[in-house]
Amino acid sequence: MSTSDTTLKALAARFDPAAAAGLDLVFGFDVTDEGKQFALTVKDGTCALQEGTNPDANSTLVLDAETLKAIQSGTTDGAKEFASGKLRIDGDPVLAQKLSVLFPA
Asked: What pLDDT digit, counting tens, does each position of 21-32 carry?
């Protein structure tokens, strides 16, 4: 299992269903150094992780596996990595900020 598989499964395990009530969002993850893509679908208090791209992604995070792991573990945050250029967000960057509320540390 790749670093991104393990990291995103750990992220999904922290899902807060109450924070997702009434939401219908798709977050994409493009893990550049592993050549892998994932879609995290949040809908009405549920969360589903699948490998591959989802054309309906509202916000896609483009980053390497090390940066993904550091953000997920709380070693760093998305804003810092975005400012440093290690994280790019395709789509709505405001929605990407919801990840910390939906998946609290």
From this structure: 999 999 999 999
1 vs 96: CA distance, rounded Å:
25
> 42 by DSSP, 3-state: which?
strand
Distance (Å, whole) CA 19 – CA 68: 22
- Distances 89 to 1, 13, 45, 93 between C-alpha atoms, Å: 25, 23, 24, 6
pLDDT at 88 over 90: yes
Backbone angles phi, psi at 35, to 5 degrees: 65, 30
Burial class (CB in 10 A: 0-12, 13-18, 19+), 22: exposed
Q: For the chain, what is the mean pLDDT?
A: 95
- C-alpha to C-alpha distance for 85 and 60, rounded to whole angstroms: 15
In whole angstroms, give the CA distance from residue 93 to residue 34.
23
Tokens read off for 29: 């993850």
CA–CA distance, 69 with 34 (Å, rounded to integer): 13
